[in-house]
Amino acid sequence: LAKTTQPISMDSYEGQEVNITCSHNNIATNDYITWYQQFPSQGPRFIIQGYKTKVTNEVASLFIPADRKSSTLSLPRVSLSDTAVYYCLVAGDNTDKLIFGTGTRLQVFP
Amino acid sequence: DAGITQSPRYKITETGRQVTLMCHQTWSHSYMFWYRQDLGHGLRLIYYSAAADITDKGEVPDGYVVSRSKTENFPLTLESATRSQTSVYFCASTWDRGGDEQFFGPGTRLTVL
Predict the structure, then answer these.
(1) What are the residue boundaries of the structural domains of chain B, listed by start?
(2) In this model, does residue A93 exceed pLDDT 90?
(3) CATH superfamily of this structure's domain B4-112
(4) Could you report the per-residue pLDDT of B45-58, keeping only the tens digit for each?
């Protein structure tokens, strides 16, 4: 069971780079690592997904070491609008084992 | 409207009453999910469905019933609501399996008095 562990909260300032790490020691071979963003009173929204090494899209980068026991979501130059809760999800073929965890609450200050 | 919708958005009911939360998606996604979100627990999977007429339990299924007679609809029923079922409920869908990108609805805030 690929349970995830993330910091409960993080603070940052506008323009800084934010790195949120997720620990997933029991990740399975078929599991992918997916990050979601959630604003208050909204459903989570997909940010990025990866299997190994590094993945980058227009909003974030995802770094995954060779052992895949952890992953780091990197948000470059955050703005106030990045204030949200970020969830790390490790899942693959075993749909009944989907566990999001409690997420990381990111607060960005001016 | 394209996408995934939930109804009602807000619901207040009393202990012991039956409540049904609706979820509708327009993408013909195979997989659909129901989650509940409570403070301190994040998102917890209640039930999921891999296709029409195929449903299975998630992490916290007790007290809930689901059905999926059509691909686009996935209703969640609380047969006898309890106060512990006060929560925000999210429906989600995806093409192939749980590990793929999930698309979430706006949520239903349910209060059981």
Answers:
(1) 4-112
(2) no
(3) Immunoglobulins (2.60.40.10)
(4) 999 999 999 999 99
Could you say which of B44, B59, B90 has the minimum Cβ distance to residue A43?
A: B90
Residues near B90 by Cβ (< 8 Å), separated by ≥ 6? A43, A44, B6, B34, B35, B36, B37, B43, B104, B105, B107, B108
* Mutation site, B101, B103, B108, interface A, largest A CB count within 10 A: B101
Tens-digit pLDDT profile for residues A3-31 = 889 999 999 999 999 999 999 988 888 88
- Domain layout of chain A by residue ranges: 9-109
Q: In chain B, which residues have their Cβ closer than 8 Å to the Cβ of A30?
A: 99
Residue whose C-alpha is closest to residue A6's, from A86, A81, A94, A83? A86
**What CATH number should be reported for the domain whose range is A9-109?**
2.60.40.10
